[in-house]
Amino acid sequence: MKRIYLNWLGASVLAVAVLGPSSAVAQKAVSIDELLRQVEQGRINDNQENRQREERFRASRADQQRLLRDAEAAKRAEERRSEQLENEFDANEGALADLKALYNERLGALKELFGVMQQVAGDARGRFDSSLTNIQYPDRGQFLGDLAKKIGSASQLPSIEEIERLWFELQREMTESGKIVRFDTAVITEDGTEEIMEVARVGLFNIVSDGKYLDFDANTQKVSELPRQPEQRRFTRSTSDLLNSDDALVRFGLDPTLGGVLKSLVARPNLVERIQQGGLVGYLIIALGIIGLLISLERMVVLGIASRKVTAQLNSSTPSNDNALGRVLRVCDANKSADTETLELKMSEAIFKETPALNRALLFIKIISVVAPLMGLLGTVTGMIQTFQAITLYGTGDPKLMAGGISQALVTTVLGLTVAIPMVLLHTLVSGRSRRIVQVLQEQSAGILAEHAERQGER
Hints:
By secondary structure, the chain is of the alpha+beta class. It has helices at 2-19, 32-59, 61-107, 110-129, 140-153, 160-176, 233-244, 260-267, 271-277, 279-314, 324-334, 340-358, 362-394, 400-458, and strands spanning 180-188, 194-202, 206-209, 212-217, 222-225. The chain has a five-stranded mixed beta barrel with strand order 1-2-3-4-5.
């Protein structure tokens, strides 16, 4: 019995919670009877509120019917107005079509003329926006654009003044294309600042300042210095002559492609950039070539001095210790009393002692002449590996991605041949000088031995 009572009490409390905070149940119940009375009173209050709402809804039913009748009347009025407007629109469409037909009939051949004018105005604006003359006459683009739109809209006809100005702009562009004009304008320098400087416009081909070629950007309508000038000094010097010379005839480096050739010259890498394209292999080849060149120059100087001293010794009867031939002759003088075979051995030994100093580093020069093209071949292989890696990752759609590897391959090959060919020539020249001195020593030694043998025979 106690368990059942607790469940019933829980259900009663739940019922109070569901009913909410009404005036009858808001008070705290102290017994089950009082709780029942509060629940009963709350249900009675809710029923009263529901009846009041129903009465208010019945009272406003008449107003709702009136509002519905007013809305239906307004809808019918708007439908009649919409029908009237549609009839007026159809009538206006017919009248507009009749007016357009009358307009086209009266326009006649002028329609084709205005079509040509629209095309000419549009084409002229496109050409003028990228023309160097637009620096001096920047307002004509707006006029040509407005004229093309005006003719294209077919709502207005161009006036005589507009037609004459179109002809004037075309004629002025034609006239300015054959002039060399000097004027002041804003120029963006290499450091990004804008300065007013004197420039010269050579027709429609080039615009230059003192010692520099300039570039005109059609998108921004700004004049700027090229990021790099042509390497040939004669081109940049001609720009200074054009601005500073008062002669009627001046030699000038003209670009007939309106900047195409100039941009290709500027984009062409210089010697330092070419070397940088070779990468590490290219630097190693250059270092090897410099070492070989220094050794070759040292050998040429040393052997040249030695050759002159040997030549002087040939013209002297007194052996000197400052040259190879003099030292060999001193050995001969020291062994005059020896027999021919002993003297021959002594002189051969003296010549052998002189030979290493004369042939020193010649083998290294020859090795450089052989290793340099092999290193160039190594750079070629590594460059092609980079190229194929780029193709594997990005495909062949963009050639610029493959240009780095191909450049390294070609530059290292050129560097290897550039080092190898002079090294071969220098090795031939240096070894020739060395062989000449050794040959002189052998000739003099053979002559001395022959004279010594004759003296020994006479005895």
